[in-house]
Specification:
single chain; alpha/beta; eight-stranded parallel β-barrel; 8 strands; globular
Length: about 270
């Protein structure tokens, strides 16, 4: 598997510094958080996009995906959500990224069936745009659809190659799913996987990989036993939301070694 980390762990850091961290610690790729407070987001111009793409290419580091914040199951009109997705797809195309990330965001204002139908309708429409852009839209296992079983209710209804799943291990675990059950549900739709570690279900402050309770080793084992053994494993360290958490740069070397041991053990 190829290893990456998310810029959520180094919010606002200049692109050259992000690339230096990746190359220094042996990561193959980076997931770019596409928020206006970051250096790369849908509001930047064509020159900045071309420059960013060139810097990644020169460094030999791949852009795993563009992590956006569109909520495909959220109540309201479809068009604002579709416009947000289109802006992410354009950015991904310009940067050469294969995936964009969206959230479910179903909330509590509608039933599960209504949220499923809303998400499937929007993803079905957006997937047609994505196919033209050569990019896949990945709905993350998160919030209203945190388990693999919940995500596949939507993705099965969409039935389009360009609409898939981003497996966030923490959320499926918090939803009560084992890695084996999550993979069984998500495998037909899987784009890539985010791993992290936390102290407990009640304390989700990010920890160094291997120091918490999440079943990372089991997750890696099921990935390597299936058809996604050559895919991406991305460390999402949520430093942006936890100021007291240790800085990610100090942990990257240890994290890379931890994931490499898991991969080598299962080889």
């Amino acid at each position: 598997m190829k290893l990456a980390f998310s810029t959520l762990g180094v919010p606002g850091v200049p692109l050259d510094d992000v690339l230096n961290l990746a190359t220094t610690h042996g990561f193959h790729g980076v997931e770019l958080r596409a928020h206006p407070e970051e250096r790369i987001h849908p509001g930047i111009g064509l020159t900045e996009r071309a420059d960013a793409a060139a810097r990644f290419k020169d460094a030999g580091v791949e852009i795993v995906g563009i992590a956006g914040y569109a909520q495909v199951a959220a109540p309201g009109e479809d068009e604002p959500v579709l416009d947000e997705i289109r802006s992410l797809l354009t950015l991904a195309r310009d940067l050469g990224a294969p995936f964009i990330r969206v959230f479910p965001g179903g909330g509590t204002e509608q039933s599960a069936d209504e949220a499923d139908a809303t998400a499937a309708r929007r993803l079905g429409t957006a997937a047609e745009y994505a196919a033209d852009f050569g990019v896949r839209i990945l709905m993350e296992t998160h919030d209203s659809h945190r388990t693999g079983a919940a995500a596949t209710r939507v993705l099965g209804a969409v039935g389009h190659r360009n609409a898939g799943a981003l497996w966030d291990l923490m959320h499926t675990w918090l939803g009560g799913e084992s890695p084996g059950d999550s993979y069984a549900a998500l495998s037909p739709y899987l784009g890539y996987v985010q791993v992290k570690d936390i102290a407990s279900a009640e304390d989700t402050t990010p920890l160094a990989l291997g120091e918490g309770v999440l079943p990372i080793a089991e997750c890696v084992d099921v990935l390597l036993s299936g058809e996604h053994r050559d895919g991406w494993l991305c460390w999402e360290y949520e430093k942006r939301w936890y100021e007291a958490a240790a800085p990610l740069p100090e942990l990257l070397g240890q994290g890379r070694e931890f994931l490499s041991r898991l991969l080598n053990r299962a080889a």
